[in-house]
Specification:
The protein is mainly alpha-helical and 186 residues long. It has one domain. The chain has nine helices and no strands. Helix 2 crosses helix 4 and helix 5 crosses helix 8. The protein is globular. The chain starts with 5 loop residues before the first helix and ends in a 6-residue tail after the last helix.
Length: 186
Amino acid sequence: MTRITQAVLVEAARAVNRMGAQERLQLADEVFAHQPNLLASVVVLRQMGASDAQIEVPLHVLLVAWQAMKSSTVQWPLISEDTQDVCLQRLTGRVRFAEGLTPKSLRRTVEKHIDEHGEQYLLAFAYGHLRDNGLLAVRTEVEQYLVLVTLNLVECIAFSAAKAPARSNASPRSRRVSASTRRPGS
């Protein structure tokens, strides 16, 4: 079940696209405070030889995802390194399966994966952003890392969303008010 709706994702992407450098830095600080392992998986790309411009691709996906996560109805748990490892193993298994497929079969496989994915709008956004930045061809080892990190961000978010409880629509204050206005015996 998709927890990040298409409308929430579109608004999150628009909000991040409108941000200046300082606002993006503040948003990255929020990610660090709430989901440090997700941010670390992007930052570590520098050690793997990625340039700042290349790192901007998965970072943009992460910032949009975080903005969408904040607007969703989910109480997002901390995504651990163990969760990242499990999701990466599943992701690399799907990649190995897709190796050697014809372009038509590969396209059908990707479309089916997106259609059945727990966060299909976020996954489609990530694939589109990777495509728009010329990374889906995966011509170098660095590009392979960029693609894997970007898609694993989405896998981790989908994995945690499936286990996360929904937020209450009522604020703690409104719950207290409604509880205090109940008649005795009701």
